[in-house]
């Protein structure tokens, strides 16, 4: 029993203290017994994916990053396999504002997340995952432009998400047009831009009233929406693909020379491959022939395969894979193979011409890597389920985060190799013409 001294002290405590203690006990009991879920994980906040791993330390300012066996001259990073990567993803749909709605697969209910947890391992060497600190140091006071279709824009958004891990960007677009965007990273005075040009050359609708969507392509005229401004950029990534599958009329010297799938008895069907070849020929010659003294680097990113199964894109086709293919499980179909080979032939020809004029053309050969990633497309998860939208299953673009992030591994690797070339060239006794 309490002593008389204790009872005396208790009587001397102010009444409001008794009221405070009683209220605290009452609320605690109510919380535990009437609202037990508030103490469980059911109502606790959880990110849509594990927190991204910490960033590696940045290199010293001005350093040329070129260490490790990834620079083996015998290593072809375009050949390899996908291996598990427990550290991925490196950003989430919660942490990156740059993800296009139709590529935001987790937001729109994709039930699995394994497609984010792989990395590309080339045969015979290692390809480090993208390091935003290294990349930003390499591009300090420089600029990069993406020229091409919506898959190229998909690539740009992936790059933005990876860079936003290290710093912030501001919208520096000269006009408010989603097809022509610019973002500046003030911390490094670096600018990223996108130029919408799905055919790379001048294009216009053949007839506004034609339901077939027939298009006129002027195969020897570069699209001025990008060609007039591109000289100001230090790096340019050129790409194009699926738009060339649509019906088109081909013009050269302003004269009709043929078509692809125009169904006109008086016009020669030159096939889509002719238009594709000529478009890349014209686009690459902007740098080797038209831009006198262009001192930047041009990257051609190769064809990105689609993965429709069970039908064509407009006939119920879908991409239902939930893991990467092994190398012996997939091969390019005829269309993808011909498009890829056409690109390679035009690139090699332009590369030889550019070498004579000290114009740097480099290849981002991502086709084999992406052939194996039928699991990485939005499919039906590019919009709200049941939404009244005129969209098909998307087996063309790529989820973010997802396999397309690897394209930036390729890009940084190639840029570091470029720095190695320059450093080697500047060593005493190694003076030689630029390649």
What does this 3D model show about the protein?
There is one protein chain. The protein is α/β, with parallel strands linked by helices. Helix content is 28%, strand content 16%. It contains nine helices and 13 strands. The strands form three sheets. The chain has a seven-stranded mixed β-sheet with strand order 4-5-6-3-9-12-13, sandwiched between helices. Strands 7-8-10-11 form a four-stranded mixed β-sheet. Helix 6 (271-290) packs parallel to helix 7. 38% of the residues are buried. Residues 1-21, 23-49 and 60-72 have low confidence and may be disordered.
Helix and strand layout, with pairings?
Elements: H1 4-12, H2 15-34, E1 80-84, E2 118-122, H3 132-138, E3 143-148, H4 150-163, E4 170-171, E5 180-185, E6 190-196, E7 201-205, E8 215-222, H5 224-227, E9 235-238, E10 248-252, E11 255-260, H6 271-290, E12 297-301, H7 334-356, E13 360-364, H8 367-371, H9 406-426
Parallel strand pairs: 3-6, 3-9, 8-10, 9-12, 12-13
Antiparallel strand pairs: 1-2, 4-5, 5-6, 7-8, 10-11
Helix pairs in contact: 6-7
